[in-house]
Design goal:
Layout lengths: L8 H50 E3 L5 E3 L13 E7 L4 E4 L19 E7 L2 E12 L2 E10 L1 H49 L17 H50 L4 H33 L3 E8 H18 L3 E5 L5 E5 H18 L5 E9 L2 E7 L22 H6 L6 H10 L4 E6 L5 E8 L15 E4 L5
Parallel strand pairs: 9-11
Antiparallel strand pairs: 1-2, 3-4, 3-7, 5-6, 6-7, 8-10, 8-15, 11-12, 12-14, 13-14
Helix pairs in contact: 1-2, 3-4, 5-6, 6-8
Bound molecules: adenosine-5'-diphosphate.
Adenosine-5'-diphosphate binds next to helix 6 and helix 8.
Amino acid sequence: MSRRFVPSIRFRLAAWYTVALCLMLIVYATATFVTVRHEFLEQLDDDLYEDFETAEGLITRMPDGRFAWVSNEHHDPDIDEDRGTDVWAAGGEPIFRSRTSSALPPPVLSGASTHPRYDSIVANGTHWRTLTRTATLGGAAVVLRVARSEDRLRTQLREILTVLVFGLPLVAILAGMGGYVLARRALTPIDRLAAEARRITADRLHERLSVPNERDEIGRLAAVINETFARLEASFDHLRRFTADASHELRTPLSVIRGIGEVGLGETRSPAEYKEAIGSMLEEVDRLTTLVETLLRLSHGDAGTVRLSREPVDLGQLARDVVSSLSILAEERNQRIRIDDSAQSLATVDRLVIREAIANLLDNAIKYSPAGSPIDVRVRSDRNQAVIEFVDQGPGIGAPYRERIFDRFFRLDDARSRESGGTGLGLAIAKWAVDVHGGRITVDENPGGGSVFRITLPLTTPRQGDGTKQHAHTTQSSGGRL
Ligand code: ADP
């Protein structure tokens, strides 16, 4: 397959510039030539008129009836090569002819009047411009014709035309070369940018393009590329951290399983001891399975391939469901969960996905607040937002961590969190679940100690006469990212 020739931008710029300049020059040269030619011809006709008036005054009738040129004060018609004067009787007989005008054909006398008539004629290869008019010389009515050669004028016009015609390609070539050099100079910074950008590989993402002048076009382009590199670097870092954290998380249960196995094999044990060892191993396997499943779900969320089944959901009802599912955990720790859902709050969401977010937040509140402390779940609506709050009496989240707490594998107290079976992914999942519904998840300090986790979702207003559960069931693909 033959590769199509794609000219470089600098070549195209130079070509366009040359073509545009040539077109302008052609128009300009044509207009100049036409104007100059018109001016020359007009000047020639004016000169002819002057010649006519001079001839009228200088040709006199001699006593013998002949006509002669009486003064050569202006010019001698017998010497001049490029001018001629002749006088004709109305009947067509020549009365007076200067030396040069004898070469001209006789004038057309019919129609000769006191109005000057201009003609262009060719005689012996010479172009002449003539003025013919009736005149009264020595009392006789005659036809007087003056002529001037156009040769000099034509030579001048030809020279001008030659300069214009041959000058044009020269100017075009010079313009093309100049345009190419200029385009190259203008585009050199782009080549430099490309060379610099090529050097920035995945392991040198911290490097940036140099921006000599951030206000010009190239500077703005470099700034945009630099921003892209910064985003890429952040994503790479995120990914690296995530991979490292995920490997670490996966390695811990594997080491535990290995340890239990090695101890079990170390010496002969009773069946009950073996059973216990296998039970511990299965617990770790469960932990691993949960971790892997959560990671998989997160990566689906990243890829935007999770399908959401949205329906109007009464968030108060949903929160009650979750509270009753987790109440056993709270009871174990002697905690009391109080729920306030007096204000009805409806949101069009995927019930299961939001349920999981609520469950994760409530689970954390139970896990991280002291035994015997109360936990409050409040559901309300605030203008066009549905809000669910989880208020606990736990250690709270320090201000510097309130953003990072939602990152994957981020834990404030590693040992405590692991001990309570946490994977460090609960809040990341909750954040994704809320984000994907166009909501927000935040954490604040509880004035009475502990933390307040808050989910905000777009509120759905119930239609008059509609029961909350009878809305159409809509399914849509989510493009949510974590
Ligand atoms: P984990 O599975 O470890 O609980 P999460 O993503 O749910 O992971 O939470 C991340 C970290 O945030 C926890 O390890 C814990 O340190 C902190 N955390 C979460 N919820 C609370 C809370 N209600 N009070 C105090 N700390 C919390």
